[in-house]
């Protein structure tokens, strides 16, 4: 996640080829999503920080937490664009070309305990994703007591300000699915489930259970 990365932020390359998630997430969507959308969030954050020397030593997470305490003219664009970078990186890194079919280990146990079964979890998560009104993300994460929850964030808001530690997110902005799935949001979520990196998700979950990863 670019630990301690600071201004000027770079649009780090995807850890897999643009077409690696085919046929579930198409190459053109990945190119547009990473090279245009994520690049734009990166450029806009750098533009804001260019004139804010005291903020140039902060990493992404620090900027997100600091934004609410800043004057709105600076705080709002920082929150939107630092959030956009965090949310997109988290989404891209939460997928991989040859994932295991479903979670395993402690995360699987926690999902079954909280939702009854992996299949039931998928149903609830899918319904939450379809229900997103406008643009946003649906997340699996841990609440303040470290139990699993499914929750939604609007636009480029991050889980931190809702006191959730994230494990997985699916991007429900139109640009994430429109080229391939048009308005079929449920089919997009079904396809996304085929490329979820459950090993990465479990390592995030275990970090949270040990009190690490994020505040
Ligand atoms: Fe996106």
Q: What layout of secondary structure does this protein have?
A:
Layout: H1 27-50, H2 60-67, H3 72-93, H4 105-115, H5 118-130, E1 136-142, E2 148-154, E3 165-171, H6 178-181, H7 185-194, H8 198-209
Antiparallel strand pairs: 1-2, 1-3
Helix pairs in contact: 1-3, 2-3, 4-5, 4-8, 5-7
The chain binds fe (ii) ion.
| Beta-strand content bin | 5-15%
Radius of gyration: 17 Å
Number of separate domains? 2
For the largest beta sheet, what order do the strands appear in spatially?
2-1-3
- The backbone outline, from C-alpha atoms, is globular
Q: Any ligands, ions or cofactors bound here, and which? A: fe (ii) ion
Spans of 5+ residues with little confidence (pLDDT < 50)? none
Helix content: 40-55%
CATH superfamily of the largest domain: Iron/manganese superoxide dismutase, C-terminal domain
CATH architecture of the largest domain: 3-Layer(bab) Sandwich
Largest sheet: 3 strands, antiparallel
The secondary-structure class comes to mainly alpha
What is the CATH first-level class name of the largest domain? Alpha Beta
CATH topology of the largest domain: minor pseudopilin epsh fold
Arithmetic mean of pLDDT? 94
The CA-CA distance between the termini, in Å, is 15 Å
Supply the number of helical segments. 8
The topology string of helices and strands comes to HHHHHEEEHHH
